[in-house]
């Protein structure tokens, strides 16, 4: 079945010393580049490593991705066990000019990843260790860690970190299965950004395998130029094998997850509600609006949504079967009694046809969102292998007229859609930028601290056809390109939204 997903963000991310690139390879050593003859022995990988070829039983599982749309293809997948294995693989691939990708959660949807054709996958799934030092307030993770790997451990230590978000799609979400490093390296949009900044703002240091197979530590005090680039454009600079993050005492052990489903007649009131926060979404509040097909969408008789100044689209049906459902997810880093005054302005205007408001442990956040669409980490990871084509956009403020037009068009699209097209969705993420803006722009490569609601553009939410300026900003590109010449002169890391 073909699933066509539209993510619209309307507002506003050793052994073979072949150092020096393919040109340095002698004719004699060229035979070492045969990708189809690779073995742990030929690469001198550690005994715990594995080499998997397309004919092997587990090749499909090892190379499975969240989306098949414009996906990378591989002639071989290698599962390294040690950092030294990753070094050998990077050296080998760079020297032989073999397209390669290190993978963690395999949720990257950037279409430029599809330029890896018959390449080498470096599967980091054996780099998923997690350790916490509650006294030092640090979390150390392996480069292949997924969000679900560390959430419980962080919570058990009485700590928190900004987690990513999840979306329900075909009624099951996949967020917990997303790798932790890739979002971090792109900047990292998360619900706790109002409290702790971007996910990358919590990164303290990273061990990075560079294109020539060296390993360096990047932090504020070591290779600080690389550390700057890692926090916003990091997918283009190396393979992180281990990362240290700052964690924080829990703002509240118990938080609120509130989910509401509205008919499209509520759309004007919802967008007024989002817009009412202006640039000042409270730090503890995270709002997501998610639009999807729902055969059971229905009007609720007592709702009164049409504001005199901003009429909602007139031709939308209020009857059962309208089919576009607007889900509002609200996460609040505190108790319901504190959140209630922030909910009242919305609920005074519109009545959901379905709701679930729960006080939950912080660690359960990703599993409660959107009416519990993601029951568990294994369920999240089981939702891979579909065709998903994602587009993004970013805005700093809401244009009500555009919004109304969009809702009318999307609604009518869903009404006429076949079953596969009905799986199209859109969503808007509006998180507080209080802490994000406290960190000076020049401190990291991440360029879009002033976006009000993360309706992309931001590197990891990009489609793949955007200009580099749109993703990285004209202001950051000169320094990024200069650093690229130092750290990756062969441009081996050129498949995730490349900028050279
Ligand atoms: C359901 C879903 C929810 C999402 N939610 C958020 C969100 O809340 N906030 C947000 O900011 N983004 C979010 N994203 C976007 C996400 O940041 C990107 O899709 C990201 O690239 C996925 O990382 P991955 O490790 O799962 O993917 P992969 O496909 O494994 O990797 C993607 C890219 O990152 C590189 N990479 C992976 N691991 C490493 C590493 N250890 N060192 C160096 N490079 C590495 C890969 O080489 C590749 O270029 C979401 C995506 C999905 C599909």
From TrEMBL:
Keywords: FAD, Flavoprotein, Oxidoreductase, Signal. Transmembrane segments: none annotated. Residues 69-250 form the FAD-binding PCMH-type domain. Its cofactor is FAD. It holds the Pfam family BBE. One of its GO terms (molecular function) is FAD binding. Residues 1-24 form the signal peptide. Belongs to the oxygen-dependent FAD-linked oxidoreductase family. This is FAD-dependent oxidase. It comes from Apodospora peruviana.
């Amino acid at each position: 079945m073909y699933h066509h997903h539209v993510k619209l963000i309307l507002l506003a991310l050793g052994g073979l010393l072949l150092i020096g690139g393919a040109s340095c390879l002698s004719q004699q050593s060229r035979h070492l580049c045969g990708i189809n003859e690779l073995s742990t022995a030929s690469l001198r990988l550690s005994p715990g490593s594995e080499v998997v070829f397309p004919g092997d039983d587990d090749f499909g599982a090892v190379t499975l991705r969240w989306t098949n749309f414009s996906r990378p293809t591989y002639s071989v997948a290698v599962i390294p066990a040690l950092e030294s294995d990753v070094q050998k693989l990077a050296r080998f691939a760079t020297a032989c000019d073999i397209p390669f990708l290190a993978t963690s959660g395999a949720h990257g949807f950037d279409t430029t990843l599809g330029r890896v054709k018959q390449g080498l996958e470096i599967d980091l799934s054996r780099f998923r260790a997690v350790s916490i030092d509650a006294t030092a307030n640090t979390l150390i993770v392996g480069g292949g860690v997924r969000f679900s790997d560390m959430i419980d451990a962080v919570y058990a230590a009485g700590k928190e970190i900004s987690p990513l978000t999840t979306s329900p799609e075909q009624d099951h979400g996949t967020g917990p299965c997303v790798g932790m490093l890739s979002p971090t390296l792109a900047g990292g949009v998360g619900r706790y950004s109002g409290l702790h900044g971007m996910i990358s703002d919590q990164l303290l240091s990273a061990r990075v395998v560079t294109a020539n197979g060296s390993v360096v530590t990047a932090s504020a005090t070591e290779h600080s130029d690389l550390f700057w680039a890692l926090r916003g454009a990091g997918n283009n600079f190396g393979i992180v094998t281990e990362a240290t993050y700052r964690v924080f005492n829990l703002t509240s052990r118990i938080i609120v997850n509130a989910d509401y489903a509205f008919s499209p007649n509520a759309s004007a009131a919802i967008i007024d509600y989002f817009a009412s926060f202006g640039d000042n979404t409270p730090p503890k509040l995270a709002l997501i609006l998610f639009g999807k097909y729902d055969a059971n969408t229905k009007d609720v008789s007592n709702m009164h949504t049409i504001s005199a100044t901003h009429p909602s689209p007139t031709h939308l049906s209020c009857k059962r079967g309208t089919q576009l459902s607007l889900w509002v997810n609200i996460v609040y880093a505190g108790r319901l009694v504190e959140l209630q005054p922030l909910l009242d302005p919305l609920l005074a205007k519109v009545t959901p046809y379905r709701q679930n408001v729960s006080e939950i442990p912080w660690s359960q956040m990703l599993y409660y969102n959107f009416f519990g669409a993601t029951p568990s980490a294994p369920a999240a990871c089981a939702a891979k292998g579909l065709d998903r084509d994602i587009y993004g956009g970013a805005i700093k403020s809401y244009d009500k007229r555009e919004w109304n037009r969009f809702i009318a068009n999307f609604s009518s699209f869903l009404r006429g859609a076949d079953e596969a097209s009905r799986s199209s969705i859109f969503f808007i993420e509006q998180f507080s930028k209080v802490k994000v803006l406290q960190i000076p722009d020049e401190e990291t490569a991440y360029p879009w601290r002033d976006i009000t609601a993360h309706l992309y553009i931001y590197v990891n939410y990009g489609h793949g056809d955007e200009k580099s300026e749109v993703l990285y900003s004209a202001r950051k590109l000169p320094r990024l390109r200069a650093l690229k010449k130092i750290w990756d002169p062969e441009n081996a890391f050129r498949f995730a939204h490349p900028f050279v």
